[in-house]
């Protein structure tokens, strides 16, 4: 039974979820500016050409899409774009199949985290 004037938990939950999920990408995109060369070198080590250009584009995209997601603007495209970004970044940077030992374990854990993030992004797009 729903009472008039009661807090719409589902609505607030969706907004809170979008803000929390978006903050991951917003902070990540901004953080790249402070560790740009380090990330670019990691990308180059993984065989990514034009790493600095791609990193700059990806960082700006992360910040813009995260801001849209958090503000409730173009939520579905922003969430799906971030999902695509997450898949591509995971495949390119978390090549656990080429690693062993603790490095492989760390990359696998990050892949598992990214799968959960993908789930949140799909939910955000579906509830837009």
From TrEMBL:
Q: Which UniProt keywords apply?
A: Membrane, Transmembrane, Transmembrane helix
Native source organism of the sequence = Xanthobacter tagetidis
| Gene Ontology CC terms, in alphabetical order | membrane
Q: Which Pfam families match?
A: DoxX
Membrane topology listed for this record: Multi-pass membrane protein
- The protein's name: DoxX family protein
Cellular localization per UniProt:
Membrane
The record's InterPro entries line, in alphabetical order, gives: DoxX
Q: Where are the transmembrane segments?
A: 12-33, 53-73, 79-97
């Amino acid at each position: 039974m729903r009472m008039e004037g009661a807090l719409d938990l589902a609505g607030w939950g969706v907004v809170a979820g979008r803000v929390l999920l978006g903050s991951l990408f917003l902070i990540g995109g901004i953080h790249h500016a402070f560790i740009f060369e380090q990330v670019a070198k990691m990308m180059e080590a993984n065989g990514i050409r034009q790493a600095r250009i791609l990193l700059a584009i990806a960082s700006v995209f992360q910040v813009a899409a995260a801001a849209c997601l958090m503000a409730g603007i173009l939520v579905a495209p922003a969430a799906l774009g971030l999902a695509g970004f997450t898949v591509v970044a995971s495949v390119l940077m978390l090549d656990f199949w080429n690693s062993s030992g603790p490095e492989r374990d760390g990359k696998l854990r990050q892949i598992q985290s990214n799968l959960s993030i993908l789930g949140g992004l799909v939910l955000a797009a579906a509830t837009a």
